[in-house]
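Hey all, quick one. A colleague (J.T.) asked me to put the alpha-D-glucopyranuronic acid job into the tracker so the inputs and the structure tokens live in one place instead of scattered across chat threads. No bug as far as I know, just bookkeeping. Sequence used:
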Amino acid sequence: MRLRARIEEDEPAKRTLRSTFRLHAESGLAAWLRYAPLPGAEHRASLPSHIVALNSTTSSPVYIAGQELEKGIEGIFGKQCKVHHGHYGAAGSVVVGTLDEYTKAYGNLTGAPDLTEDGFWLSTKGSTVQILGQNERGALYGAFEYLSMLAQGNLTQVAYASNPSAPIRWTNEWNNLDGSIERGFAGNSIFFADGVIVSNLTRAAEYARLLASIRINAVVVNNVNANASLLTPQNIDGLGRIADAMRPYGVQVGISLLFSSPSSAVQGQTNLTTFDPLDESVIAWWTNVTEQIYERVPDMAGYLVKANSEGQPGPITYNRTLSQGANLFAKALQPYGGIVMFRAFVYNQLNESDWRADRANAAVDFFQPLDGEFDANVVIQIKYGPIDFQVREPTSPLFADIPKSNTAIELQISPEYLGQNCHFVYLPPLWKTVLDFDLRADNTTSLVKDIISGRRFNRSLGGSAGVVNVGTNDTWLGSHLAMSNLYAYGRLAWNPSDDPTMMLQDWVRLTFGLDSSVIDTITQMSLESWPAYENYSGNLGIQTLIDILYTHFGPNPQSQDGNGWGQWTRADGETIGMDRTMSNGTGFSGQYPSEVASMFENIATTPDNLLLWFHHVNYTHVLKSGATVIQDFYDQHFAGADTAQTFVSMWESLQGKIDEERWNDQLFRQVFQAGHSIVWRDAITNFYHNLSGIPDEANRVGNHPNRLEAESMTLDGYKLYAVSPYEAASNYTAIVTSSNTTSGTATTTLDFDSGRYDLAVNYYDMYGGASHFVVSLNNHTVAEWTSNLRQYIGSIAAPRVLGHTPSIYIDGHSATRITFANVTITKGDMLKIVGTPDGNEPAPLDYVVLLPPGVVD
Ligand code: GCU
């Protein structure tokens, strides 16, 4: 029997074994900056022999660039280059510095490049290399560009200037002061613990290094759901320490503000009774706090503000406008050159019985009337779609509707609604649907990427904000493959026209090496990943049919409706979808410029993948593809889960081509995803099958001949449990132990042809307990695991913990499958499962399935 995934909690005993594999193991901490040795010592002759860094101040980005070049060239080629800081011969050297410093040292550069802020010039002529930035940050970016070429074995001669598309290339880290991270899936904060800034900021500096290499220039370090105590004198000093740690990498610090801070009794600050943005004492309060911050952090990037949204206070609390709120901060920041990123994510709870109510309308309703009223240093930060980081959304119309305001796009690298890095989704193809979308403002080409760069509407500011949420986990995001999203985010913020496949392949080479099968396999998996996830989590523009009322991880289509959050599907027995037309619906389609509005208004010109976003139709409505809506739901959910199964074997094919540690860790995630995609598929198809009463033409939905339902087995010490939501269990029912201390047994006689099968067990891994399961055939143990998502593969023991938001319930979040490959079955065998409860987890079981090789349940 080969264990595909054996889950086990008791790992310390196996540590010795693990250490054998640590020799070549990689934790992921170095991400794409590994500088791994390249075969090809023959190239060394053409490399520079010296590095000239035109700044000797150790905290300067140019000095850092010199260090990186030294480290990189040595790591990749084993060649030691000495770094010089004074004037040194340029021939045979790599010279890095600002264009100005270069000119001072070596005279005018012939064919001097046209550089804008943060831009750089890179020229390689054999062993003579020039890396010249418009500023120090640009020089560091150029050094990373050159090192990226080298690390990919690219020694071609180049000479070009690279300039950013937009000045704002920020990340947002939703870190709370207690060290937790909202929608973070990789452990705790690298910045905060216990209400203050951590003393050891090594990881913050390492993060800044990663960000500099992808040309990110600022990080907002705390959650948009902010806490006023960030503004205590002790924390302002802590922010100064973070800024000091990141500054050498050209990364500035920004902070999220709680709008009501002046009246929040911040220790060390005056306590007011109001936070009215027009009140003189409030204005003075923010002016004073801003001054204190700039005293400690002279290059603070600015403020991020979430106001009047999801319970956050804001100017509307005092009947002031959102622009009056934003300008309060803009005026305080203006003397220091700081920027206010003011979020457009403002909406109210709504009543579903009002056919015309629509949360998607909110941003334009709130912001369009204020266009022209925001100060010059305010940027409206707009989520890519009108709702909330769904698996597919139409482009937010707000980008086109406030031409007199600066705008930035908000993307989510931390995939809150897209599998929380326990499912793998390469996000740039999704982002590109928005960046490349032509909103046709004034019937003129108006690509979102040209709006946020400021070009389309002649704005001086604009750009991108990416919600990253890195944590203390060595993988940064919780999964090695997920790092391609962060890498590509930076690349797109610099140049939104970059190609998702090219960026991905650069990342693969830098992260895993140059083996072409590794590149091809990861490319295929990556490009199939978003379509697969969309297919099994909610297609046709219905949104991610996730549990929106709890952890945003597993399926719960019912949770979209019947509440005020406005993520409605309006599904009933005959019909589904939001009518967002002007003629009969919420009028949302009318928020777009006319050409786009008429495309979405008309069902015939609305693309199938957004049909249910814009239209309310019968399940029997025929799509452009020729299938009915309901049949397409069934077909795509099965297709998506099928694709997720193939990721396991694709990843397995890379064994030995990637170090064991990273290979195992990702395999664990792919196996989990394969199982959970079936949970998703079944939940969604059963739910709509039940609701519509329309059978699946292919007879797959609710028909699983290879399954043995736990509730149909002979039970001893186990009892039936009606799962909620019902569709999160096969046949709606699971079993749980009758007591929370004594084991239960489920037994059945196998009526399968003798042979080899993959034996999979669907169970629930809840937070707050680690039940133990033993599966035996005729009392001979064939599988054993502890339900705590810690895992064994083969002989390697490693604690592997999934970082998704946990669930304390038996539901679609905790539903999990474990598969044991190649189990020999003889007809008539007695299969027994003994489940031992732990804590509040009553060893919950859903079903067992026996799959002949190659068959997906
Ligand atoms: C989502 C997310 C919240 C977050 C919010 C925001 O609703 O679930 O955790 O606070 O977006 O972007 O402000």
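Adding what we noticed when we looked at it: The pocket of alpha-D-glucopyranuronic acid is lined by residues 182-183, 224-225, 306, 310, 345, 388, 416 (CB under 6 Å). The mean pLDDT is 94.
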